[in-house]
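[User] Once you have settled down, look closely at the record that follows, and write a paragraph about the fold.
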Amino acid sequence: MNLNNLVCIDLDVSVLEGFRKFINAWLYLGDGFTLLVDPGPLSTIPHLSNELRRLGVKHLDYILLTHIHIDHAGGAGALLKDFPGATVICHQEGIRHMVAPEKLWEGSRKVLGAVAEAYGEIVPIPVERIRFEESVGQTGVRTFLTPGHAQHHCSYLLDDFLFAGEVAGVRCELAEGIYMRPATPPRFILEVALDSLDRVIALAPRRMAFAHYGLVDNALDHLRIARNQLLLWVRGVAETAGMEASRREEAFAIWLRSRDEYFRNISRLPEDIQVREHNFFGNTVRGMVEYVDNLSVEKMRELVEG
């Protein structure tokens, strides 16, 4: 894979505080093909289309969706109007939702509220334009099912480069050090997420593109950090299981800051991005709380004892 042909296109949502350097699309200009990973929400499609034209892109062969959440896939149908020759690749379970997205849109509005409205409605994709492929045409891209962040999550490998989506959670850029956190909204199942991480680790990617956010040269280091974070965070949620719901999230955040050297770096982020991350932290914790609180007493004891 030629990294000189890979472009990160920022899809900032300026009406939302801190939503910069958070959503991005990845453009790859291959040998005889052009593909785009995660076109983003509807509200950012005009900017994305303008950037593609500025870069001289007149045709897209494939639009790859890591998953169908609104911030990754909501604008795919609109982008097809500008690039009618493209084929959308998606997890089998996500196809029906992208073809008829009414329930997905309503669910997004219910969970995200004003954020969903800022993203914009989900545009349907014609059924003949979307499919699942384990090997994407003649591109050399291989598709791997990596549920955890979402049951319909995929990651894509081209040579030793992994388009990871949110299989390893969220990363924010720092001048020094690493900020990362899991991305585990309900319905989260620890064993499923760990299995997905173990399988992408076994692929031994050299470099990796996060959906949120950026490119890293040491992919395996970040994947292992993500795996360890999942185990640590679930243990912390289990340790706070007896607390009142109103106090539990704050107590867990304090617990984390003394134990997770990567999440602790949230205090080094710009203030507006800290606001965004604190908001998403609550969503991540809710997924883990739902998982932990449905465990048996014996299993919860095992988590606490490590």
